[in-house]
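Researcher: For the annotation table, I need structure tokens for Methyltransferase domain-containing protein. Please keep the output clean. Sequence:
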Amino acid sequence: MDADGVLDPAEVFDELGADYEAAFHGAPLVWEGLHDLLARLRPGDEVLDLGSGTGRPVAERLVEGGCAVTGLDVSTTMVELARKRVPGARFELADIRDRDFPPESFHAVGAFFAFLTLSRAETRAMLERVRQWLAPGGTLALLTVPGDIEQLVVPFLGYPLRVTSFAAEQWPELLEQAGLEVLSTRSEPFVPTGRGSADTERHLLLSARKPTG
């Protein structure tokens, strides 16, 4: 908890546990992002799932597709749930800002809402690190809630959470600045399961690739 009484992300997701999975499992762009990744992957390919949550549906679906999945999450509860739900993947309790991997370790990286609790500077740094971790031709699937906001406290499934993002038109530029080639962008509204229409979010899915040259 910070000086303003706002819980840190690990505390929020420890409290939410499986409720987070239930709220966002049906988000269409989560499934479209997974479909895009699987279309570019082969059995045995290494995939990094940033902010892996309960492991469902992202890590679970990737494992079913034959991928070797490593998930990182800052929440103890989420990691414990993921290890039970998706025993075929490897999950680590880690802050994505602190974990590092050798260059070209992964054929794909998934970042499904993983950057919302980072600062803008941290997001830029993470995108550059993702490019380093990807093998040439490797894919990033990034799902976020766009908005010109920085360290804004918002209600998130009953908890105040401090979030940061960029406007939708800024995200492709950020990826390109990090050395990634933008393949596609898609946006659509979504209401988390169990919420009312007043809680409608706009999700933004971006697919990008590390150049082969």
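Researcher: And a one-line annotation?
Model: The radius of gyration is 16 Å.
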